[in-house]
Amino acid sequence: MHFSLQFPFWSPHFDANKLIIYKFMFCSCTFLHSIKSPSHLQADLDEMGSEAHLSEEKAQKAMIDAARLADELRAEQEHAQVGAIKLINSKTYFF
Fold first, then answer.
1. For the whole prediction, is pTM greater than 0.90?
2. pLDDT at residue 95, rounded to an integer
């Protein structure tokens, strides 16, 4: 169903009420055409579900990477602390 808003405004039989009715019919058809069918809605829902699943996987990988980096940093800090303690203990101070 397609309606056009082309109405002969210059016509001697121009009626403002008909224009309002035509506009209403046009807007109604446009609105009904924009509503998706249930199969399209299900497809959108499936797509959103798969995107959520991928986001969860990415978040899980990011948390694992963050934990690994934190362990590496902790190990480097402990190594530096042990080295600093050995350096301090190896020096003899004369007063």
1. no
2. 54
